[in-house]
């Protein structure tokens, strides 16, 4: 997974995608889900294409993230929780906005802005900022409360690194 993500972050999407083929990805309790990595690679591709002005390709990939890919059994099902996350919705909204698809961008930002999971609150806030009626003061209070909760969870959870990352991203959003 690390190699795949490194390749995608470097913009080598075709090579990253090749590593999904002809491989078995075992499930491990508490481990990384291959579907998460697959969607991350596709999101990076969409955002790269959109920011590079290749909107036709970006929109095609974005609109087919939930499609089954022949030869990749894991794309048959189980993608919805990842696709419905605030982070994914915000990223897609950003790509749609970059490509002038304002209605689709707004729909994705609205979806992202309704998330309530603590580990998604940063993306919920970013999406809310893109919508009319954004209330900065209200969000500052919500972000601060979320930061405090994430810090508590970093001391009590079996995933302290995840909560430390979440707390740090919230602290950054608050300018701390």
- Contiguous uncertain segments of 5+ residues: none
The value of Rg in angstroms is 17 Å
Q: Using DSSP, what is the number of strands?
A: 0
Number of helices: 10
Helix content: 55-70%
Shape: globular
Provide mean pLDDT, rounded.
95
- From the N-terminal CA to the C-terminal CA, the straight-line distance is 32 Å
Q: What order do the helices and strands follow? A: HHHHHHHHHH
Major sheet characteristics: none
Strand content: under 5%
Would you tell me the structural class of the helices and strands?
Answer: mainly alpha
Helix-strand blueprint:
Layout: H1 2-9, H2 13-18, H3 34-51, H4 55-63, H5 80-83, H6 86-98, H7 102-113, H8 121-129, H9 136-156, H10 160-173
Helix pairs in contact: 1-3, 3-4, 3-6, 4-6, 6-7, 6-8, 7-8, 8-9, 9-10
Structure notes:
The protein has ten helices and no strands. The protein is globular, with a radius of gyration of 17 Å. The protein has 176 residues and is an all-alpha fold. The two termini are 32 Å apart.
């Amino acid at each position: 997974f690390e190699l795949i993500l490194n390749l995608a972050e470097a913009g080598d999407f075709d090579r990253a995608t090749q590593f999904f083929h002809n491989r078995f990805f075992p499930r491990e309790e508490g481990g990384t889900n291959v579907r998460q990595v697959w969607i991350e690679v596709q999101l990076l591709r969409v955002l790269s294409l959109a920011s590079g002005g290749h909107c036709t390709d970006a929109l095609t990939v974005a609109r087919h993230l939930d499609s089954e890919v022949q030869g990749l059994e894991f794309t048959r099902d189980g993608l919805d929780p990842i696709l419905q996350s605030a982070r994914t919705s915000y990223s897609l909204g950003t790509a749609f906005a970059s490509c002038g698809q304002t209605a689709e961008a707004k729909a994705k930002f609205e979806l992202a802005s309704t998330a309530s999971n603590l580990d998604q609150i940063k993306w919920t806030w970013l999406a809310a900022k893109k919508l009319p009626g954004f209330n900065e003061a209200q969000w500052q209070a919500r972000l601060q409360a979320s930061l405090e909760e994430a810090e508590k969870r970093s001391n009590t959870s079996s995933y302290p690194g995840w909560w430390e990352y979440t707390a740090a991203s919230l602290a950054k959003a608050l300018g701390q």
